[in-house]
Amino acid sequence: MKPTRRSVLAAFLAVPSTKAAGIFEANAVSTQSALELTPACQDVDELTIAQTEGPYYKPSSPLKQDFAADAPHGIRITIAGFVLATDCKSINRALVELWHADEHGSYDRVGYRLRGHQFTDESGRWWFSTIIPSLYPGRTRHYHVKVQKPGGSVLTTQLYFPGEPLNERDQIFDERLLLHIRDTGDGKFGRFDFIV
Ligand SMILES: [Fe+2]
């Protein structure tokens, strides 16, 4: 039986710190779930690339990590990761903001459904419980994110799903922004570490 999203997240949050957890190569495919929970960072790692904000950003999103009630019929996923500096040190109190399309491919332009932000914990970790966004015309499947370390500039970018048929035809898609996805007993778990 596969672990649940909750148990995978709990294991991720139990990893004590960047250095104690050790470092492994970015995007390494491993069946060792413990390894998947450690930061994907090398000492010479490059900054996470920026991408367009797109037309649907809305400022002043709520402090919110759990979007489950916003889309009760969507496919569940928990996404999580670290915010790291280029030397692989974790950054605490970094802002991570997420907004994305719903299970019908629509953005909430009136309220704040499927929009929220949080600050990384003392080990630089962030997570959201949400859904896999549906497609809308002209784009492959994606999330929108903003990441800002304290006192730093805002990184605006997007995250993508591996194996999506439209990835190769999407003008904005970049494989450096692919989530590392695993199946769980009750949905998916996606992992991405931002380097800012
Ligand atoms: Fe979008």
From TrEMBL:
Residues 53-172 form the Intradiol ring-cleavage dioxygenases domain. It holds the Pfam family Dioxygenase_C. It comes from Phyllobacterium trifolii. PANTHER family: DIOXYGENASE, DIOXYGENASE, PUTATIVE (AFU_ORTHOLOGUE AFUA_2G02910)-RELATED. Residues 1-21 form the signal peptide. Gene3D superfamilies: Aromatic compound dioxygenase (2.60.130.10). The keyword Isomerase does not apply. One of its GO terms (molecular function) is ferric iron binding. This is Protocatechuate 3,4-dioxygenase beta subunit. Belongs to the intradiol ring-cleavage dioxygenase family. Keywords: Dioxygenase, Oxidoreductase, Signal.
